[in-house]
Design a protein that fits this description.
Number of helices: 9
Strand order of the largest sheet: 5-6-7-3-8-9
Number of strands: 19
Distance between the termini: 33 Å
CATH architecture of the largest domain: 3-Layer(aba) Sandwich
Order of helices and strands: EEEHEHEHHHEHEEEHEEEEEHEEEEEH
CATH class of the largest domain: Alpha Beta
Shape: globular
Largest sheet: 6 strands, mixed
CATH topology of the largest domain: Rossmann fold
């Protein structure tokens, strides 16, 4: 459904894009990861037909984007980095406008509103939606016309946890029905559980490709030991909210409570680094997948809020706050 073959784009004297091969079949979800730059912008232009390759080819659902733009609009749904909604129109009216453009039946707008969880917000102007719900609406517009291919640029940008989880669930459902999904993002946070393949791009070239499931299988140990009275419990990293050092003891905190571990915080950090854990403070190691907000109380005082029922707050040091900002790009 997506095929790049010896794709090159030269701008002036520079070869900005050079991808030997990249192929996605029906029902596959993949991501291209790399910093935002001219190479990624040109790749988007090539996918949408706004630019032509200097050499090689790009095909989407068998179509050449530059020559078949009208047909491509029926075969591919696009979610850009910006939502580009009609702010003065209601949520439903935004979908109705595009439904009519595609010649779809009236019921389709209602179906999509339900899919993206916006039925209760149908009469609200799009400009008044919080960021996460606005992203849901833009995503709904992309899948409105049943496209067999989805191109998603930073799909989880500005999403709250609930919205990101909903979009990820919808993507899995769409892929199960045969939709091909290509995600362009700056970093892989949240994509390992979603994608079959992740491609890392630097300066217009794919420098690494891997199946995140294979990476996990090779990333031992799978479990983190915790001491209980009569046994040793083995915890999945995804079940750990955070770890804390209290005196000479280290504790693992889960939704069910805390348990001690014989590993110190430095040893835990080494084991959990590739599972998305971050040293927020000298005494705290936090699972970034469970962080829902960063709150700056003062210029030098920060707190992380977790997505557990208690909305647990974890101190974030000034140095770690700067590192986290650079890591996540906010």
């Amino acid at each position: 459904m997506i095929a790049l073959n010896h794709l090159q784009k030269v701008v002036g004297q520079d070869t900005v894009l050079d991808i030997a091969a990249l192929t996605l079949g029906a029902g596959e979800i993949a991501a291209i990861i790399g910093p935002t730059g001219r190479d990624k912008t040109i790749l988007i232009d090539l996918f949408t037909g706004r630019a032509r390759p200097t050499a090689g080819s790009i095909r989407v659902a068998g179509l050449d984007p530059a020559h078949d733009r009208a047909a491509l609009s029926r075969q591919m749904g696009i979610l850009f980095a910006e939502n580009s909604l009609y702010d003065r129109l209601t949520v439903k009216a935004n979908l109705e406008f595009h439904r009519r453009l595609h010649g779809l039946p009236p019921a389709r707008a209602h179906e999509v509103l339900s899919q993206v969880g916006l039925t209760d917000h149908a009469a609200i102007p799009a400009g008044k939606l919080p960021d996460g719900l606005a992203r849901r609406l833009a995503f709904g517009r992309a899948l409105l016309h049943y496209p067999p291919v989805l191109l998603l640029i930073e799909p989880f940008a500005r999403c709250d946890t609930a919205s990101a989880d909903l979009l990820a669930r919808l993507l899995r459902e769409l892929a199960a029905w045969g939709t091909t999904v290509l995600i362009l993002a700056t970093e892989p946070t949240g994509l390992a559980d979603l994608c079959q393949m992740i491609y890392e791009m630097e300066q217009g070239r794919i420098v690494r490709s891997y199946n995140p499931q294979d990476e996990r299988q090779g990333d031992l140990p799978f479990k983190i030991p915790a001491r209980l009275e009569a046994k040793v419990a083995l915890l999945n990293p995804s079940d750990i909210l955070y770890a804390s050092a209290e005196g000479d003891r280290t504790y693992l905190h889960t939704a069910e409570g805390q348990v001690p571990t014989h590993l110190n915080l430095a040893e835990l950090e080494e084991r959990l680094a590739r599972s998305g854990f971050f040293r927020a403070h000298r005494a705290y190691l936090v699972n970034l997948q469970r962080v829902k907000a960063v709150i700056p109380y003062t210029r030098d005082s920060f707190t992380l809020v977790l997505d557990d029922p208690a909305s647990t707050e974890i101190p974030l040091s000034k140095t770690s706050a700067r590192e986290l900002r650079e890591l996540l790009g906010y």
